[in-house]
Design a protein that fits this description.
Blueprint lengths: L5 E9 L6 H10 L5 E2 L12 E2 L13 H4 L4 H17 L11 E6 L5 H13 L10 H5 L3 H10 L5 E4 L5 H14 L5 E8 L4 H9 L29 E9 H6 L6 E10 L12 H14 L8 E3 L8 H13 L7 E3 L2 H4 L6 H15 L1 E2 L24 E2 L4 E8 L3 E8 L4
Parallel strand pairs: 4-5, 4-6, 9-10, 9-13
Antiparallel strand pairs: 1-7, 1-8, 2-3, 6-7, 8-14, 11-12, 13-14
Catalytic activity: (9Z)-hexadecenoyl-[ACP] + malonyl-[ACP] + H(+) = 3-oxo-(11Z)-octadecenoyl-[ACP] + holo-[ACP] + CO2; a fatty acyl-[ACP] + malonyl-[ACP] + H(+) = a 3-oxoacyl-[ACP] + holo-[ACP] + CO2
Family: Belongs to the thiolase-like superfamily. Beta-ketoacyl-ACP synthases family.
Pathway: Lipid metabolism; fatty acid biosynthesis
Length: 417
């Protein structure tokens, strides 16, 4: 069987730096930080009192109030970005073969806010079990694609991938594989997360993963900087519509980019720490290049996992230098988590979108807050510090890794007939 070409025909975004794709790109290209003091709860007693929250999101634009009450915030974000992407793709939903349309979504945690609220309410009570009848549907991660498929009647593959911070990348890769092997014509994919809660902040504080730069939230996410002290928790989501090329061509769809390769691997090393030699990341990138049928010198831009953690950042760069050799000095490298924070299971979706928009605009978004490069990193590498850079971009590579040693790489290409 000859694999089919897979293109991207629709996009949607709700992020800490913009609630549409256009707003998101404006924030990325201008180097805007989405970090600010937490508004969702009183964080005054927490070690970290800031996050990259979504601002001014109006769920009523996408979901009726009565239905929205039955859902968790991560599901609101999923439905919102899916609707944006569907409208962007210009589908005639009446003529679309919905048996051949699927939804494959990524979420590492799911309805953490709903879980926390129900447990807290129970603990405060007299022991009588009074739980919301929508508690379980609000909590479980698979209900994000479930709600999307129900809303539009999509009858194809429908599930959620859960691999911590690699979840959305896993979802996109699965969608890519389903389409290229002829199992679907169209798949809505991406991810959403809403973990800015007491449990989310407290839990990551407990394992010392979060920045505690409370006096300057906007500069707290600083990948590759010598004074980085952890990641900044973010929230939101993004949707990519993947479509089989001939199907897209037949309906006259606009095409943003093409998905051409993907790789998976496991570190098989530690539940939270990366492999010290970056072996899993090396294998993952090599597999993606092989899958795309290209050599390393074809890649123009790498959107790194780059979380702003002391241990994680250098290991990924070591792996990049191992795979790309001397050509690594000709690459643009950047971490858009410096602006959006870390969206956990949704991070692969917003970063895939960053790669696609970089290809579209031929501009590399920056790594902001890079004041002084960590001395363990090679200063000859181009980390795209603090300002966006124009360059020719034909291929862009996106890395995302998750607790448990999960590694994912996706390669996007500028579309050509």
């Amino acid at each position: 069987m000859n694999p089919k070409r897979v293109v991207i025909t629709g996009l949607g975004a709700v992020t800490p730096i913009g609630n549409t794709v256009a707003e998101y790109w404006e924030g990325l290209s201008k180097g805007v930080s989405g970090a600010a003091p937490i508004t969702r709860f009183d964080a005054s007693k927490f070690k970290t009192r800031f996050a990259c929250e979504v601002k001014n999101f109006d769920v009523k634009l996408y979901i009726e109030h009565k239905e929205a009450r039955k859902m968790d915030l991560f599901q609101h974000y999923a439905i919102a970005v899916a609707e944006q992407a569907i409208q962007d793709a210009g589908f005639d939903l009446q003529s679309l073969d919905k048996r051949r349309v699927g939804v494959i979504w990524g979420s590492g945690i799911g309805g953490l806010r709903s879980l926390q609220m129900e447990v807290v309410d129970f603990a405060k009570g007299d022991g009588t079990p009074r739980f919301n009848p929508f508690f379980i549907p609000k909590m479980i991660a698979d209900l994000a694609p479930g709600h999307i498929s129900i809303k539009y009647g999509f009858l194809g593959p429908n599930y959620t991938t859960v691999s911590a911070c690699a979840s959305a990348n896993n979802a996109i890769i699965d969608a890519f594989n389903y389409i290229r092997w002829g199992k679907a014509n169209v798949i809505l994919t991406g991810g959403s997360e809403a973990a800015v809660t007491e449990a989310g902040i407290g839990g990551f504080n407990a394992n010392k993963a979060l920045s505690e730069r409370n006096d300057s939230p906007e500069t707290a996410s600083r990948p590759y900087d010598k004074d980085r002290d952890g990641f900044v928790l973010g929230e939101g989501g993004a949707c990519l519509i993947l479509e089989e090329y001939e199907h897209a061509k037949k309906r006259g769809a606009k095409i943003y980019a093409e998905v051409v390769g993907a790789g998976f691997s496991s570190d098989a090393y530690h539940i939270t720490a990366p492999h010290p030699e970056g072996l899993g990341v090396i294998y993952c990138m090599q597999d993606a290049l092989d899958d795309a049928g290209i050599t390393p010198d074809k890649i123009d831009y790498i959107n790194t996992h780059g979380t702003s953690t002391p241990i994680g950042d250098p290991q990924e760069i070591k792996a990049i230098q191992e795979v790309f050799g001397e050509y690594a000095y000709k690459l643009n490298i950047s971490s858009t988590k410096s602006m959006t924070g870390h969206l956990l299971g949704a991070t692969g979706a917003v970063e895939a979108l960053a790669c696609i928009l970089a290809i579209q605009h031929q501009v590399v978004p920056p790594t902001i807050n890079l004041f002084e490069l960590d001395e363990v990193l090679d200063p000859k590498l181009n980390f795209t510090p603090n300002k966006a850079q124009e360059r020719k971009i034909t291929y862009a590579l996106s890395n995302d890794f998750g607790f448990g040693g999960h590694n994912t790489t996706i390669i996007f290409k500028k579309f050509e007939e």
